[in-house]
């Protein structure tokens, strides 16, 4: 890398929860227009990395910039789809209302009214994710796929230049998964995307870069993994193969193409 900052620039980042390290010495640059996939085992720090990028988890060491600014500033251009277990599905609120909360400016207070333009914009986002018929439905009545689409619409309400998604296809049916990936491919024409996923099939078909995280960044490069990387990441490639990894991801080991290891 030269001295230029990417859209996201993570330098020597370490994050601790108490005495326990969640991330250690992470260096990662994400350039405009990239579609970065982050994979890794549970507890590997994937969610922590996204949260640190938008400044909602404190750094112990190192720096993060978003659009060349501190995360707290740069995140105004960033849409965030949190991991679903972190969201209360029982909250008594409709799809339309959830998407509108994404339009709320930080300065607006309780009882602030949404403008007609904001409502129309929210409707257009609901349409974009294919939920128009469900706009007035309570979120507790949504399927996993519908819920994720709603969260994507909400994240788009800030008119982001960067979209972060934390496992947006977990507990989602096959049809919705396809729709979500088609939507993300479309959105990537207008914005940079970082997606955390266990969905390696989608990773091979969609992303332009891949990062493998298990407390440290084990790999960052082309979305093709050789056996050595997979071994370091999961410790058990057989497990991965059992989940149906396509050849493009689990590439045969080739000495000449082993680059990109961190
Ligand atoms: P991933 O998203 O890859 O599953 P996480 O970023 O959620 O991983 O977690 C990384 C590590 O940090 C795990 O060991 C997890 O238990 C721990 N951790 C995550 N959030 C907290 C928290 N709020 N308090 C304490 N430990 C946490
Ligand atoms: Mg997670």
What coarse outline follows from CA principal-axis ratios? globular
The bound ligands are: adenosine-5'-diphosphate, magnesium ion
> Helical proportion?
25-40%
Find the CATH topology: Rossmann fold
From the 3D coordinates, which CATH architecture would you assign? 3-Layer(aba) Sandwich
What does this molecule look like?
The chain has 262 residues and is α/β, with parallel strands linked by helices. It has one domain (8-257): 3-Layer(aba) Sandwich (Rossmann fold), CATH 3.40.50. The chain has helices spanning 46-53, 71-74, 95-101, 116-128, 144-156, 174-187, 200-206, 227-234, 237-242; strands spanning 8-17, 20-30, 35-39, 61-66, 78-81, 162-166, 192-196, 209-214, 216-221, 225-226, 250-251. The strands form 3 sheets. A 6-stranded mixed beta sheet has the order 5-6-7-3-8-9, sandwiched between helices. Strands 2-1-4 form a 3-stranded antiparallel beta sheet. Strand 1 and strand 2 form a beta hairpin. Helix 3 (95-101) packs across helix 4, helix 3 (95-101) packs parallel to helix 5 (144-156) and helix 4 crosses helix 5 (144-156). It is globular and about 50 Å long. The model is unreliable at 236-262 (pLDDT under 50). The structure holds adenosine-5'-diphosphate and magnesium ion.
């Amino acid at each position: 890398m030269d001295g230029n900052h990417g859209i996201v620039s993570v330098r020597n980042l370490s994050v601790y929860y108490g005495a326990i390290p969640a991330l250690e010495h992470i260096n990662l640059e994400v350039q405009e227009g990239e579609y970065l996939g982050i994979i890794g085992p549970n507890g590997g720090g994937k969610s922590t990395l996204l949260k640190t990028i938008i400044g909602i988890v404190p750094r112990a060491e190192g720096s993060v910039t978003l659009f060349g600014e501190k995360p707290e500033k740069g995140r105004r251009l960033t849409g965030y789809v949190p991991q679903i277990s972190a969201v209360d599905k029982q909250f008594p609120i409709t799809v339309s209302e959830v998407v509108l909360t994404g339009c709320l400016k930080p300065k607006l207070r309780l009882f602030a009214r949404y403008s007609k333009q904001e409502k129309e914009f929210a409707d257009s986002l609901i349409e974009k994710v294919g939920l128009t018929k469900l706009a007035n439905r309570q979120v507790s009545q949504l399927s996993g796929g519908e819920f994720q689409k709603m969260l994507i619409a909400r994240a788009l309400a800030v008119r982001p230049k960067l979209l972060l998604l934390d496992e947006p296809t977990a507990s989602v049916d096959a049809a919705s998964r396809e729709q979500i990936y088609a939507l993300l491919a479309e959105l990537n024409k207008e914005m940079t995307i970082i997606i955390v996923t266990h969905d390696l099939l989608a990773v091979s078909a969609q992303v332009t870069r891949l990062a493998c995280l298990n407390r440290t960044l084990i790999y960052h490069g082309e979305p093709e993994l050789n056996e050595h990387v997979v071994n370091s990441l999961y410790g058990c490639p057989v497990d991965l193969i059992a989940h149906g990894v396509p050849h493009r991801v689990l590439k045969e080991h080739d000495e000449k193409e082993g680059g990109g290891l961190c």
